[in-house]
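Lecture notes, continued. The same structure-token format from the folding unit now serves as the input rather than the output. Read the line below as a description of shape only.
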């Protein structure tokens, strides 16, 4: 209950709450879409995957300073680097003969 009170006091208007909530949803969705698209495009080419992820992270970093949606860019940047780790390391179990 106290956490809700702190959250409501920290932002001035209801519009800021809605904007922050929208950025918290859109940033990870954008990052997950982009990173999973890269994983599907380069399933065997790790080098190209990391080049694409690095370029996207650089793009998000540049947008953090020059945009009013810096929080969205921040979330998209680090979530895009975290998301492929789960899909790169997972392997399908081999069929039992």
């Amino acid at each position: 209950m106290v956490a809700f009170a702190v959250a409501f006091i920290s932002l001035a208007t209801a519009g800021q709450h809605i904007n922050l909530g929208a950025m918290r949803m859109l940033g990870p969705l954008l990052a997950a879409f982009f990173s999973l698209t890269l994983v599907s495009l380069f399933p065997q080419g790790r080098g190209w995957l990391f080049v694409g992820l690095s370029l996207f992270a650089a793009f998000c970093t540049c947008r953090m300073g020059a945009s009013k949606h810096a929080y969205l860019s921040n979330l998209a940047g680090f979530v895009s680097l975290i998301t492929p780790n789960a899909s790169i390391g997972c392997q399908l179990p081999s069929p039992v003969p």
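Point for the exam: The chain has a mean pLDDT of 78.
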